[in-house]
Amino acid sequence: MKEIITSGIKRLIIDETITLNRQGAIGWIYKDCIWLHSKRFLYDLKKIDELPKDDEDIKELMFDFGLIVKNNNNRLLHRKEVITDECAIKLSLLCLPLRNVWRNPDDYPPQMKGITVRDIS
C-alpha cells in the first residue's frame, strides 16, 4: 500500500495534477519537505482506486507508513503561512519529507527559491 501511495504522489506531480512551487500551486518544496494543501491534495489522491475514499483514513494510512509527519501539537494538519515573492497565504498543509517519497535525493523536485513556510498555529 505504501508503494501505491508513493507511486500515486509521484504520478500526480509528473502529470502536474499536483502543481508545485508556483502561483496557484497546491504544494511547495521547502526545507526537504513537500508542503501540500491538504484538501486539494487528498481530493486528487483519493482518485487512486486502491486507496480509501475518506480523508481521515488516507491521512492515518500515510502517517502509519511514515509518509507524513505530525506538527508540534501531535496533529497531522499543519497551520502554515506560505510566503512567496508573489503572495502570502494561510493554509492547512500536510508535511511529506522528501526522503519518505523518493529514495534518491537526485530525484527530489527542486525547492522553490524565495519561499518561506512558517507556523501560524
Describe the structure.
- The protein has helices spanning 2-14, 38-45, 55-64; strands at residues 27-30, 33-37, 78-83, 88-97, 116-119.
- By secondary structure, the protein is of the alpha+beta class.
- The protein has one domain.
- The protein has a five-stranded antiparallel sheet.
- The longest helix has 13 residues, at 2-14.
- The termini are far apart.
Query: Which strand-content bin applies to the residues?
Result: 15-25%
Radius of gyration: 13 Å
The main sheet comes to: 5 strands, antiparallel
Helix content: 25-40%
Strand order of the largest sheet: 1-2-4-3-5
User: Class by helix and strand content?
Assistant: alpha+beta
Low-confidence stretches: none
Number of domains: 1
The run of helices and strands is HEEHHEEE
Secondary-structure map:
Layout: H1 2-14, E1 27-30, E2 33-37, H2 38-45, H3 55-64, E3 78-83, E4 88-97, E5 116-119
Antiparallel strand pairs: 1-2, 2-4, 3-4, 3-5
Give a concise summary.
By secondary structure, the chain is α+β, with helices and mostly antiparallel strands. 26% of the residues lie in helices and 24% in strands.
